[in-house]
Amino acid sequence: MVAAVTGVALGAGCRLALACDVRIVADDARLGLKEVRYALLPGLGGTAALPRLVGRERAPDLMVTGREWSGAEAVGLGLALRALPAGGVLAAARDYAAEVAQAPRVAVAHIKAAVDVADWDRNLAAAAVGQTACIRAAAGSLPS
Description:
This protein is α/β, with parallel strands linked by helices. Helix content is about 55%, strand content about 15%. The protein has helices at about 10-20, 45-55, 60-65, 70-75, 85-100, 105-115, 120-140, and strands at about 1-5, 10, 20-25, 30, 70, 80-85. Helix 2 (about 45-55) crosses helix 3 and helix 6 runs antiparallel to helix 7. The longest helix is centred in the C-terminal third of the chain and has 21 residues, at about 120-140.
């Protein structure tokens, strides 16, 4: 999934964007997990997604301070692929999605599955399963 973020994405809106595979954001977008200011934790997977994206040290900092970050800063933090002027975000997200849609589905699915496995050995095993599936799919499409 590709998120196109313009304007304000705080709390649940930010977590929705974090749940996507790729985020393309406006330079001046405002993002943040401000739940701590209300004596709450980020729900809906925020405490799991953020550390995977920015690391164990930076994630708690962003959550315990409740500070906002801009779209431009999101790229530097590793939270977004690209930051653009707001008017170009949706088109860029559509173009990216169209490019990914052209790739073989079996390869994309197995790449996503392997990337989501953090443990080194399990990641390699998932990648091997994916590679086998891709080879089988390619062999099935060859003329006899």
